[in-house]
Amino acid sequence: MRESISTLWPYLWRYRRGLSLGLGALILKDAMAAVMPIILKYGVDTLTAGFRLAFILELAGLLIGVSLVKGIFQYWMRVIIIGISRDIEYDIRNDFFRKLVSLSQDFYARYRTGDIMARATNDLNAVRMMLGPGVMYWTETSITLVLALIVMLSTNVSMTLISLIPAPIVSVAVVLFGRQIHTRFEHIQSMFSDISSKVQENLAGVRIVRAYAQENAEVAQFEKLNREYIRENIGLAKIQGMFMPALQGLIGITFLLVLWAGGVRLLRHEISLGSFVMFNTYMGMLIWPMIALGWVVNLMQRGTASLKRINEMMRQPETVKAPEAPVDPAECSPEIVFDEVTVRFGDREALSEIKLRIREGETLAIVGHTGSGKTTLVNLIPRLFDPSQGSVELGGVDLRRFHPEKLRQLIGFIPQETFLFSATLAENIAWGAPGATREQIEWAADVAGLGPDIAVLAHGLDTTIGERGLTLSGGQKQRAAIARAILRDPRILILDDALASVDTITEERILRGLSAVMRDRTTILISHRVSTVRDADRIIVLDHGRIVEEGTHEGLQRQGGYYAELYQKQLLEEELEAI
């Protein structure tokens, strides 16, 4: 727990001045509250000696004045401390998001999106409640308790000791109930992550769910998760339901003991009536701290459980890091060299001892069966992950010597899985080049073969395409991704099976448009279609992570290997389609 809490110190230190002001207002507010029973003691003892209206008015005015000052300090205490807890929440959320976008693909293979979202929302709110109301009321109750005990001890030691008889029982109850609340809430947050993941997966895959008529099955699974989540929350509510009455019962016993002991001493004239009233007023002041103690323990246990889950994310290692003294990749030629590159994912070897040189301005095509390592190979170039052995170089410099962000600014990457944002088509195309003009966006769309599609859209380029490009076809989404990549004017262009969702006629039109773009750039094409790669300067064939064939289209045909078989098969398919 201490290790988890220690991660908050940098945030608390950042707002140390504001926290000092807030705690100062809190102390002064508690001091004003502690003064009021003393004023009551003085007033009761004075009035016992003789009634005077003027004194009552003076006493009332004094109490009202102290109450107003207390109210002012209480207002600023809440504004400052709760406000700072919101500022810290803002900072943690920004750091959390910054951490998420810096993590590599292996992290997202281990954690579900719904789980990450639950930590970024529900868990972060629990941490904020711990830092705001939790810290504020914990400090307030502690100071109130100390001030009240000091005055009570100075009034009558024996009565004070009697009032503290239930304290050990309260401490034991706080520890026992606190542990159970912490453990159960941690489990509840984990279940909330499962529910969030279930919702996210069904919303993202709504087409598949409907296509396979699995709506009822998915609803049944969600109901099961939801039922278990509710059952755990009811269990937590039962624990809290026992905790608060137990504390209130102990408070009631304490009051009975104090009234009995104080009444006896008052009848024996061992204490004055004013002292008796003051003592009971302080006991009344301690009711809220005793009740708040249970609430604060609940907040603290919830907060530490959630902080542990957030810290788990924040401590994830960044497998792709920027070097301490990065080299500027813009100064290097776009020649790419793979030097004995091996990539392992666990026990599986995706690439094995790859030696490859892609010359500046060359168009290299990569073909191979599914799972041969094509995507893994090109993912090394923008440093989406680093090789297990060997090195990838740009202009003779190891990619690990570049800052990943600077390196990626030189690359136009069109991955297999096209992702579009819930924005207009123009905003999606210009996403990687925010300063692009309207004319440049239209040019990129035309090169990618989107012109005819834009013409039939309701608002053209300004059409909102929905989440993940829901209103576009697979081919339209791929062409939008191509437009987005070439608009960046990259020095290196990577197309990872980017034409798989378009027909051969559209493919030919796109390749004609891209030919001028590719002429002065280092280009890497991945495709299962020979028609896409036949005009490349060089073609390599991957098989089980190794380069097994290399050459031009004509040269590979003559070798009679995988590429020649693929070409003959596709020629046959075209002839059958033409019949």
How would you concisely characterize the structure shown here?
The protein has 579 residues and is α/β, with parallel strands linked by helices.
The average pLDDT is 82
- Which CATH class of the largest domain is shown? Mainly Alpha
The CATH architecture of the largest domain: Up-down Bundle
The amount of beta strand, in percent, is 5-15%
Uncertain spans: none
The separation of the N and C termini measures 73 Å
How would you describe this protein?
With 579 residues, this protein is α/β, with parallel strands linked by helices. The protein folds into 2 domains: 11-314, ABC transporter type 1, transmembrane domain (ABC transporter transmembrane region fold), CATH 1.20.1560; 330-578, P-loop containing nucleotide triphosphate hydrolases (Rossmann fold, 3-Layer(aba) Sandwich), CATH 3.40.50. It has 22 helices and 10 strands. A 6-stranded mixed β-sheet has the order 6-7-8-3-9-10. A 4-stranded antiparallel β-sheet has the order 2-1-4-5, with no helix packed on it. Helix 6 (113-155) packs antiparallel against helix 12 (287-314) and helix 8 runs antiparallel to helix 10.
Which descriptors would you attach to this protein?
579 residues; alpha/beta; ABC transporter transmembrane region fold; Rossmann fold; 2 domains; six-stranded mixed β-sheet; 11% strand
